[in-house]
């Protein structure tokens, strides 16, 4: 139940604090007074769409806050969402901030930020707003299906879950089957292509990723074998054996002999002698090695041709497959693996077809059971809705829920349409195509009355649901709203005096121009004091029309206006929305204004009669 609503800088509202009670609460006032703005604020604080125009002109931020009583269902929701469970109340707050080129908003539950999805989920448990302009929504087959399923309760909800699971399983099985069929269509071509690749790569004996580097080195050696032989012979002569006697080894040998003679007289020469001896040994080994290398070199035109042919082969493969040699070797391994998979590994098409048929049978049976539950629910809804419409001056109305078979989907295999005929002898037609505005109003109200017995939503809001009706029909709508108020909290914007007369709480909404000389400015301090009182359960403001029935001065309502004017430092002329609870005398005046009449006294008499009639209806309703 909505217990309090705080609105700040929203559209034409500067600041309002509205405490709310259980039962039927009505908002009345002239057309354009701002009644719907208050309902728009409730919609916005629970995640409705917002835009820059909703932030009060001259302000950069709007704040909306709604407080709801904590119920067991809300406790379960907080637990499911893994959010801290509040102790007493649920406070929804939304902050709307104007940016340079956009509008930003943030939502909070008990001062903890929440996502849009979480807020939408919570909204379904808190408030349902109904307006006569829902004709398009009512005509939607999807929306009608949701209404029917919601009326069916837990049994349909559980079966819908089974249908959704069966549909998911069948969809996955179909995807596997189609993927295998498509793979089989391409399988032969791909198999032949991979087999050609495998044969070619296998015949090419690709084993060493560095083979090309090695071949290039061998190619260079074979190409320059003569030069290498000549150079190695020259190096051998310089190092080891020279016809002129000037080889490096000969010179080092002479140096070694001289140093050996010197060592006999001075041991300090020993390290030098050791280095020369080592150098001589290395030079002799290098000479023998270069001699052997030169002797091993031979011109081999045949081997050179083989090397160059292999290089051409490998480079050709790399160009063809657009890969380097190491990548080509890896691709060969992939080809071998893919051929193994295409050779019959995994489920066959026959197995996949059998699995898909099995899943389809399960889905078909689940949909058939859901259809059966819907047909039984439809019969109950038809009977109950007609019963709810009869007191609304539609005692010969016809209504049927038409179910037509469709392809199975996550929501079942039914196309649902509400058929309606308000006049005897006229054929049933789609609801949105045949109902007038007044008939649509009554249908919506009757529909909500049916759902109120199974709906977990505590607060029902009706925005001018009684537009287009009068007289006996208006009285019937008023009594229907009163009955709804026994099971739910009902907020109703109305222009009908008959509806307003039956309200448990009656609020008057009006526009006021501030900043003019005729307006007595109020201080921010006094406003804050009234806000504090307004948020206290059982405050004078919320009980004024109950405790001041004998108040002789209707003008005293001015002292009970919720959140009058903004702070006195604002001198510009502005229009603001005001809301005030009405006591009994003020209600008489308001009902008289709504009813009109030849004279004001006649209107007051009619208002008095409405209030007396309302008291009798309440007394009858209170009887066991």
Structure description:
By secondary structure, the protein is an alpha/beta fold. It has two domains: 2-132 and 458-622, 3-Layer(aba) Sandwich (Rossmann fold); 192-342, no CATH class. Helices cover 54% and strands 17% of the residues. It is built from 21 helices and 15 strands. The protein has helices at residues 35-45, 72-80, 116-126, 135-138, 141-152, 154-203, 211-223, 225-239, 248-263, 270-296, 301-321, 325-342, 349-389, 431-434, 437-451, 471-487, 497-501, 524-534, 544-547, 584-595, 600-622, and strands at 2-10, 13-19, 24-28, 61-69, 89-98, 103-109, 112-113, 127-131, 398-409, 412-421, 429-430, 459-463, 489-493, 505-514, 574-581. The strands form three sheets. A six-stranded antiparallel beta sheet has the order 2-1-4-5-6-7, covered by helices on one side. Helix 16 (471-487) links the parallel strand 12 and strand 13 (489-493). It is elongated and about 150 Å long. The relative contact order is 0.12. Mean pLDDT is 82; it is low at 518-561 and 564-569.
Summarize the structure.
With 624 residues, the chain is of the alpha/beta class. It has 21 helices and 15 strands. 54% of the residues lie in helices and 17% in strands.
| CATH topological fold name of the largest domain | Rossmann fold
Which CATH architecture of the largest domain would you pick? 3-Layer(aba) Sandwich
Mean pLDDT: 82
What distance separates the N and C termini? Answer: 25 Å
Number of strands: 15
CATH superfamily label of the largest domain: P-loop containing nucleotide triphosphate hydrolases
Find the structural class using helix and strand composition: alpha/beta
**Biggest sheet: strands, sense, closure?**
6 strands, antiparallel
- Uncertain regions spanning at least 5 consecutive residues: 518-561, 564-569
Number of helices: 21
